[in-house]
Amino acid sequence: MSSEKNVNSEKMNEWNDPTAAGANPKCVLAYSGGLDTSAIVIWLKGLGYEVHAMLVDVGQDEDMEAQCAKAIRLGAASAVIRDAKPAMFASVIPQTIGLASVYEGAYRLGTALARPFIALEQVKYAKELGGATLVHGATGKGNDQIRFEFAYKSLAPQYPVLAPWKVWSFEGRKDLIAYLKQNGVADQFDEKKDYSLDENFWHISVEGAELEDAKADVDVEAVLAVVKDKFATGGSPCTAKSVTVGFEKGVPVSVDGEAMSLPSIIDQLNKQHRHASWAWELIIENRTTGVKSRGLYINPAAKLLQTAAASLAQCCLNKPTYDRYVSLGDDYATLLYRGEYFSSQRQVVDASAKPLLDCLTGEVTLTLAPSLYVSKIDAKEAIFCKETSTFEASAYSHADAGGFINLSWLANIGQPFDQSGEGYESTLETAGNTASDLCKVQSIVGRRLVSSAV
Ligand code: ARG
């Protein structure tokens, strides 16, 4: 293929040429209508592909019909909208809420949980067309390429895959805008737009510009102002001091006593708390590619529901099962982040989590100001027991604790802690504080405890 096709010839493979043996001249593009996928429609057509643009509705606040009309203007043979929300609400969303799954302790997975479902719709459409090359607009630096391509490999390993960013000669935003202009598309793309946004019903992510430099002192208010009209707009802000979420087996089923469907709950909470001071996180994360990145994530409903679910689990599960809950929640977050939704490891987590999530029924009240916290948990099956936990007199026998400590200590017996000369006291002294005096007063030196237990 020639360079006027804007292909980097060194990076070509047989799939880039739709006329080559084994390639499929029909392609289904995961299309959004943004700069990249608009350019991709023209570029694919220039290569000789029959382009089918697939716009997947994951709750982005956008005129999708208008984007489809644009795809046709750009040269697509078809442009269709498919709704991935019902499938997500029946699977990944309740699970992410119930397990309070958060990647690296902070990222609520908004983009990660949507990508596999976009890929799924693409594959379904490719099948309807009798087979097609699968195309996505993700770059070679981020997580999204992995999520798309892992899903393709799981769902339709027989279809060729084409990732334009890996083979074309364009290097950035400016090149794409010039390319569109060259092709007579005078669109509204702004050369100076420097944030990369991704929006769905679960979150809006903001990356790029000053966020790319950890040394840059980010003014979050200024970044929020740029996206203030995006995401779950149209609702009235909430003036209530608290919100109570009802859960049935780990799934939110009501808000303030009113039964609601999960999509309505998420939509309402997002709208009401879109501008709350606690509704966002500015975080650094480790991408699967190894690149570190910093992003701002706005996700009010996700934060409320996951915080509530985690508290319910803390109240309703005993210690060993709660530990499993935490580790399954982490596993689920990691595999979602890495794009492993369509995998047996995800099925294993789902199956293992079921008996734990089945215990999570009850109502959780979250106080909303001045900061977000769980102020009340009312669960019939709670293991938390006021009569046991109280500081007041109860049936609990304080004396039993003596035997418990003596027996538990047997597993811990070793060399007296301070004999080696590298004990607790000397460590503290090196650190230059006065804790050694405290240790003497409180008699917490290891030797005494060891000898009394033996
Ligand atoms: N860093 C997040 C993730 O990997 C958000 C990515 C947003 N994607 C985008 N194309 N702007 O899930």
Report on this structure.
The chain is an alpha/beta fold. The protein has three domains: 3-195, 3-Layer(aba) Sandwich (Rossmann fold); 197-388, Argininosuccinate synthetase, chain A, domain 2 (Alpha-Beta Complex); 397-453, no CATH class. Helices cover 41% and strands 16% of the residues. It is built from 18 helices and 14 strands. The strands form three sheets. It has a five-stranded parallel β-sheet with strand order 3-2-1-4-5, with helices on both faces. A five-stranded antiparallel β-sheet has the order 10-9-8-13-14. Strand 13 (362-367) and strand 14 (373-378) form a beta hairpin. The protein is elongated and about 85 Å long. The relative contact order is 0.11. The structure holds arginine. Arginine (ARG) binds next to helix 5, strand 6, strand 7 and strand 12.
Compose a concise summary of this entry.
The protein is α/β, with parallel strands linked by helices and 454 residues long. The protein contains 18 helices and 14 strands.
The CATH architecture of the largest domain would be 3-Layer(aba) Sandwich
* Low-confidence sequence ranges: 438-454
Q: Return Rg in Å.
A: 27 Å
Strand content: 15-25%
Helix content: 40-55%
Which structural category do the helix and sheet elements fall into?
Answer: alpha/beta
Q: Write out the strand line-up for the largest beta sheet, numbering strands in chain order.
A: 3-2-1-4-5
CATH class of the largest domain: Alpha Beta
Q: Based on Cα principal axes, name the global outline.
A: elongated
The number of helical runs is: 18
End-to-end span in angstroms?
81 Å
What is the number of beta strands?
14
CATH superfamily of the largest domain: HUPs
Number of domains: 3
| Average pLDDT | 89
Major β-sheet profile: 5 strands, parallel
Task: Give the CATH topology of the largest domain.
Answer: Rossmann fold
Bound molecules: arginine
